[in-house]
Amino acid sequence: MPVQYFEGIGRRKESSARVRVMSGTGKFTVNDKPLEHYFPRTGDMEAILGPLAAISKDRATFDITATVYGGGVTGQTDSVKLGLARALVKLDNENISGLRKGGFLTRDPRIKERKKPGLKRARKAPTYTKR
Fold it and tell me: How many other CB atoms are found less than 10 A from the CB of residue 94?
């Protein structure tokens, strides 16, 4: 019998994450590593587990696996957080109000601005010299 899971996809900057939530014992793995080892930075774990706190669910009731690629640490953290929130909505549609109130279902649209011709970076102009 196949295991039933609920999947959510999250994106932020250049990062994408596929998060699967199923009933279990509280294991949270990211790219086949425990969450604590993949995101050791202070505050990242709390941010990722924010959607579970918003709906007052305990982490121990779910097994969560995430596959994340691209981007840097901040982008990956936020993409896993969004993917988890979307998976929790698929798990139970009544979770949507708490997650929406906490701002977990809104995708952050900010991305890197492209470089323009004649400039050094996106907005930095070369130094102006009068003579």
Answer: 9
